[in-house]
Design brief:
The complex is a heterodimer of chains A (416) and B (772). In chain A, strands 2-3-4-5 form a 4-stranded antiparallel β-sheet, with no helix packed on it. Chain A has a 4-stranded antiparallel β-sheet with strand order 6-7-8-9, with no helix packed on it. Helix content of chain A is 11%, strand content 40%. In chain A, a hairpin with a 5-residue loop joins strand 24 and strand 25. Chain A is globular. The two termini of chain A are 40 Å apart. With 416 residues, chain A is mainly beta. With 772 residues, chain B is of the alpha+beta class. Among the domains of chain B are: 50 residues, no CATH class; 134 residues, no CATH class; 121 residues, no CATH class; 76 residues, no CATH class. In chain B, 27% of the residues lie in helices and 24% in strands. In chain B, the strands form 9 sheets. In chain B, strands 1-28-27-26 form a 4-stranded antiparallel β-sheet, with no helix packed on it. Chain B starts with 14 loop residues before the first strand and ends in a 15-residue tail after the last helix. The chains are: A mainly beta (416), B alpha+beta (772).
Chain lengths: 416, 772
């Protein structure tokens, strides 16, 4: 379960973004009041504002931390058409005594002619690289060639996305098998332009970013997009906040010949799609192991999503801003504590089994990873949807027989 | 005032027309039917009709182009609808009478200013009074019945950028200057201004009196600000300040909307913004049609808040309708959400979203602090009260499943090297077990079983083993494992074989059903749990724990299986393995060979003994599985512990990827020691070299205090060993800690001990050592 700790943010207008640093001990918020605040967690768990300063002459849409290897560095982007890079200065003892730290602007990136809607540092292994996207549909990628000099940024790439961009996300994978990749979401209102999510990949040969994939099924405005932390996976998982929450899986397909210079082809699967916010979804965020996805929507709630071992995603909790339980969803709410109450258990197990059946067959496919693994691990519920006693799956002897049915060769064959 | 009824309904659509030349200023006649556009090379009157602008009159007549036509500003008289005034760039102030019968409508020409006239302004109620402000620093008041100016006002400062008659006070006008000042003048007293204050840093380009709150003056400057001043008090008081993104060229209060004003910019920014001064950070509405700088904005009618006209350097004249405006706040994200490293969740959202029970209702109650009293009917699109966000952090409780404690503890306690393989596995299984991760624990145990040498079953009898109780489970797993492995190996006669196997297995199972009730129940209990345990995956699960402690019931199964094997080899005990009890001896039956031999009885396909490499594909898939599930810790730990046994099975890139991911995670959690150990133990060249980059130590000799060359620990100047402990005078091997001030140091524990009793250097050099 979660405990809500309310923080008096004292921003004078809407807060548009919250961002944790690499180690999870600092937090930055940005607001329409043109300021950014930095919060530090004290030993007793309280958050203290240690810096608050005016960053832009317009609403600050996003704030993001650089990897601490590059110092305590923040980037912000704003309605005023600029993005800025900030660095914390240590040593001003006067400020330190008052518990304040000093941030100075290292650079202003002024290339955009419209509102800069998102800014993100690239994964560390790429160096000190920053991507911005703007409302006129241009993604710009900057690099600081000298990581010690944060005031020099050169514009490396300009990608024209045609559609007004609202959010970007770097693929965090550090594998050499995965070239740098960036996903761009558009909040263009016109539903006739489909494909509001575009994925660009860096091509070593041409030294340019080229479009690798467009998610044509996303037709509504996209407000946020987030690659899941890639902890050694061969594929990529992308969460999208649009009128619902969607989770896509991008599986790089092996190239026919290694010399082909085109972008990687992907097999795109929709892993999940939830409309339980019943409204626009504004934000999605992954936890560090990419096992939990949080989403927030116009309903003012945060919902947590988790997959089971069969990639079947379900809501595991709903959080209101004030921590109060959400009416009518107490069952799901308590499920947050994994197996909190027996009631929640049984309720969930029914749902889980029913949907597990739906997803079951593909995983029986013998050549695929995971199918046999599921057997290696504590046993999954090997429930066939065709079984007539499917609904009374509880502790019944018929399952003894079912335990071995997966090995029946005919079943996987027809669902291959 | 008879025409004050809303006129916008007639021509309420966004429209534009191309002008021949860039416009500098525009002005509308009072009934909002015609608009005059003035510029360097244009001076025309357009009628606003339903289907577009229609050119009515071109006032640039005459053969030779006169600079008098080159307008910086234009104003249409609000009472006398035939009367226009222009400010020319050559310093002339010209009035035009549209009622003149000939083509040339020019009426008066005042050439009193020396430089460009920036602004002309008719008195709102006095028909014949015209005011001008010029670059030369003077303002002049003209009576249109006379041939020259009535009075001249000297600002005593730089150029005049704007002059505006007050709506409230018959005699008062405001003037704004390039040096940032605003002056108030009484038209009867040309000798001295009534009041002056500095409104902006840098030029004040424009000012506008509020049409209703008549003491309010809005000013806009190059400092990108719009300020609203309350002029009714003794000192002008700044009551609102709007920060825009570019220098403000024009500011116009919106009719009928007390808090709204429109601005356009002098450079860079081509948009027109309408601001609510109470929410000064984000524009209420934006008109984005112009392609170049907007030079003139004017509300079409003094009682119509929905139609705005604008002229631009891009040679277009636009009529903007409010319903077509873009609303930046609608696209603005009202929420922020971020997952922290430790599973806590920071969430900021608009307060109305958080508090409203049905948050989906837009603006549940508005903001009562600022009643918008002049709305006839509540119009959602016009509500723009000040809002704030609430920020909260959801911290996962200590036992919460999303908390990352398990990761840290596991990372700290796992043993990755330094002991025999089986012991490592057992230790790690135990760690996982204690952290309530039975799945992981089981995996470790199985790995030990699989990869311990079958010929020399190095099953060091472990006291934990019998308690683990999941051994029977594994045994049945192995059965299934085998079956699926077989499945792959016998593609050609898959059907038959597998069918055989299947029946065999089923037979086996049926035979042992009696004895294995407990096990079956256990399995399904677990399966059940797993079903709703979907969301806790590898995590603590009290109920599951309970299920897991069913070992005694499950044991009979082992005997059942043990009955089947054809020839279980009596295992040779390792001398050092302290096998004590019979139940532990039984665990031999759980070596893979048993279950394999069980199959081979029915299949006769395999040798009774399988090499560990037989399991490699399975283990590889298992590692892949763990990595996919986000538990790269497990993948890497197994990879390291298994070492050469598995390494060749997994391609280098994947290994490297796992290592990188795990190291990154460890560093996030500031587990530097573990991270270093992993780096050291890794076999990927790309990983091990991580440890060998970019660390330089500069060392002073503790004896002669000079920098040492980087070869060894012998100082080449005084030929003394520099790494002698100052406390015990022995050479330090291992951790050497030294004071950076005096270069003396020694064993970590010795120095720590020393510092408890004294702050001075143990070497006796008198230095007050600091160890950080």
């Amino acid at each position: 379960m979660f405990v809500a700790r309310s923080i008096a943010a004292d921003h004078k207008d809407l807060i548009h973004d919250v961002s944790y640093d690499f180690h999870g001990r600092r937090m930055a918020t940005c607001s329409s009041d043109q300021s950014v605040k930095v919060w530090d967690k004290s030993d007793n768990g309280e958050w203290h504002c240690t810096a608050s300063w005016k960053t832009h002459s317009g609403s600050v849409w996003r704030v993001t931390w650089a990897h601490p290897e590059f110092g305590q560095v923040l980037a912000s982007c704003s309605f005023d058409r600029t993005a800025a890079v900030w660095e914390e200065i240590v040593g001003e003892s006067n400020d330190k005594q008052r518990g304040l730290s000093h941030w100075i602007k290292r650079t202003t990136l002024v290339d955009s002619r419209t509102s800069v809607t998102d800014v993100k540092f690239a994964p560390k292994h790429m160096g000190l690289v920053l991507a911005t996207c703007s409302a006129d549909g241009v993604v710009r990628i900057y690099e600081a060639p000298d990581v010690m000099n944060l005031s020099q940024w050169s514009l490396q790439h300009e990608i024209s996305c045609k559609l007004s961009c609202s959010c970007i996300s770097w693929n965090p994978s550090s594998s050499r098998a995965h070239p740098p990749m960036i996903a761009v979401g558009s909040d263009d209102n016109n539903v006739t332009y489909s494909g509001k999510v575009q994925i660009y990949e860096y091509n070593e040969n041409t030294r340019k970013y080229a479009k690798a994939e467009t998610l044509m099924t996303v037709t509504d405005p996209v407000h946020d997009i987030a690659f899941a932390p890639n902890l050694g996976r061969s594929f990529h998982v992308l969460a999208i906040a649009t009128k619902d929450v969607r989770i896509f899986k991008l599986i790089p397909l092996r190239r026919e010949n290694a010399t082909s210079s085109g972008p990687t082809k992907f097999e795109v699967q929709v892993m999940a799609q939830f409309d339980s916010h019943n409204s626009q979804v504004w934000r999605v965020s992954w936890n560090i192991t990419s096992t939990l996805l949080a989403s927030s929507g116009d309903d003012g709630c945060v919902r947590l999503w988790k997959a089971n071992y069969m990639d079947n995603w379900k809501c595991t909790g709903i959080l209101r801003g004030d921590g109060s339980p959400v009416n009518g969803s107490s069952g799901q709410g308590t499920a947050l504590s994994a197996v909190g109450s027996a009631g929640a258990q049984s309720q969930n197990s029914v749902v889980g089994a029913a949907s597990a059946g739906r997803y079951f067959f593909p995983h029986l496919d013998p050549p695929r990873a995971g199918s046999r693994l599921a057997l290696l691990l504590p046993p999954p519920s090997l429930i066939e949807p065709t079984c007539e006693t499917d609904h009374t799956h509880a502790h019944q002897p018929p399952q003894i027989r079912r335990r071995y049915t997966p090995a029946l060769p005919t079943q996987p064959a027809e669902h291959d | 005032m008879e025409k004050m009824a809303c006129v916008s309904t007639v021509s309420s659509r966004t429209m534009f027309c191309h002008l021949d030349a860039p416009a500098n200023a525009i002005s509308v006649c009072r009934d909002a039917t015609q608009v005059v556009v003035a510029g360097r090379n244009i001076f025309k009157i357009y009628a606003m009709e339903e289907d577009g602008f229609v050119e009515r009159l071109n006032l640039r007549v005459g053969r030779k182009p006169s600079l008098n036509f080159s307008c910086a500003d234009v104003m249409w008289h609000q009472m006398e609808e035939n009367l226009l005034a222009t400010a020319a760039t050559n310093g002339a102030v010209v009035t035009w009478n549209l009622a003149r019968p000939c083509r040339n409508k020019q009426e008066h020409l005042f050439t009193e200013h020396k430089r460009t006239v920036n602004k002309v302004c008719f008195h709102p109620t006095e028909v014949h009074m015209l005011l001008s402000g010029s670059q030369d620093g003077f303002m002049k008041c003209f009576d249109l019945r006379k041939k020259e100016s009535v009075s001249t006002f000297s600002g005593q400062s730089e150029s005049v950028r704007d002059v505006q008659f007050s709506m409230k006070d018959y005699f008062t006008f405001a003037a704004s200057f390039e040096n940032g000042n605003v002056q108030l003048w009484d038209i009867r007293r040309p000798d001295r201004y009534e009041r002056m204050f500095t409104a902006h840093t840098g030029p004040v380009f424009c000012c506008d009196w509020h049409p209703e709150d008549r003491g309010w003056l809005a000013t806009g400057g190059r400092d990108k600000m719009v300020k609203v001043w309350d002029m009714t008090t003794n000192r002008a008081k700044e009551i609102y300040c709007v920060q825009t993104i570019a220098s403000v060229a024009r500011v116009k209060w919106r009719p009928e909307r007390r808090w709204h004003l429109a601005t356009c910019s002098m450079m860079v920014d081509h948009n027109i913004y309408v601001w609510d001064v109470r929410r000064p950070f984000i524009p209420f509405a934006t008109f984005e049609e112009h392609k170049d700088v907007t030079t003139g904005i004017v509300w079409s009618h003094q009682h119509d808040p929905y139609v705005l006209l604008s002229g631009s350097k891009d040679s277009t004249l636009y009529q903007h309708i409010f319903k077509d405006a873009s609303r930046p706040v609608d696209r603005a994200n009202p929420e922020g959400l971020c997952f922290g490293l430790f599973g806590d969740l920071a969430f900021a959202a608009k307060e109305s979203l958080m508090t409203g029970e049905a948050g989906r209702k837009p603006y549940p109650a508005g903001d009562r602090r600022y009643p918008i009293f002049f709305f006839k009917k509540p119009d959602v699109t016009e509500q723009f009260a000040q809002v704030a966000s609430a920020l909260s952090v959801f911290e996962s409780e200590a036992d919460g499943s999303s908390r990352m404690d398990w990761f840290i503890k596991t990372a700290r306690r796992y043993l990755l090297s330094g002991k025999p393989f089986a012991e490592l596995c057992d230790h790690n299984a135990k760690v996982a077990k204690e952290l309530n991760r039975p799945q992981v624990s089981t995996t470790w145990t199985m790995l030990r079983i699989m990869f311990s040498d079958p010929g020399n079953p190095a099953l060091p009898a472990n006291h934990n083993m019998s308690k683990l109780g999941n051994i029977p489970l594994m045994n049945s797993f192995n059965l299934k494992e085998m079956s699926s492995a077989l499945n792959e190996r016998n593609k050609e006669n898959r059907q038959d074989n597998l069918h055989n196997l299947e029946t065999n297995l089923n037979n086996d199972e049926n035979e042992e059903t009696e004895g294995s009730d407990g096990q079956a129940e256990y399995l399904f209990g677990d399966a059940e749990l797993d079903d709703d345990d979907l969301y806790s995956m590898e995590h603590e699960n009290q109920a599951e724990e309970a299920e897991f402690s069913l070992p005694q019931e499950a044991f009979p199964l082992r005997h059942e299986i043990v009955d089947h094997p054809s020839a279980p080899e009596p295992p040779a005990e390792k001398p050092e393995s302290p096998q004590v009890s019979g139940s532990e001896a039984e665990s031999f039956c759980l070596t893979p060979m048993e279950s394999i031999s069980l199959i081979s009885v029915s299949q006769l396909l395999y040798q009774p003994q399988l090499p560990p490499s037989f399991f490699c594909p399975v283990v590889r898939e298992m590692l892949d599985y763990y990595a996919e599930q986000g538990d790269v810790q497990m993948a890497v730990s197994v990879l390291i512990v298994l070492g050469d046994r598995i390494r060749k099975e997994i391609d280098e890139l994947t290994q490297e990827h796992w290592y990188m991911s795990y190291i990154d995670l460890l560093q996030r959690f500031e587990l530097w020691n573990v991270s270093n150990e992993v780096i050291k133990l890794s076999t990927c060249s790309a990983i091990t070299c991580l440890n060998q980059a970019s660390t330089t130590l500069h060392i002073n000799c503790s004896n002669c205090k000079r920098p040492m060359s980087n070869k060894g620990w012998i100082c080449d100047r005084c030929h003394q060993c520099a790494s002698v402990c100052a406390v015990c005078h022995h050479v330090v091997k291992g951790l050497f800690v030294w004071c950076q001030g005096c270069s003396h140091g020694g064993h970590l524990e010795h120095v720590m001990e020393w510092l408890k009793s004294s702050n001075h250097c143990p070497a006796g050099c008198g230095h007050l050592c600091e160890y950080t």
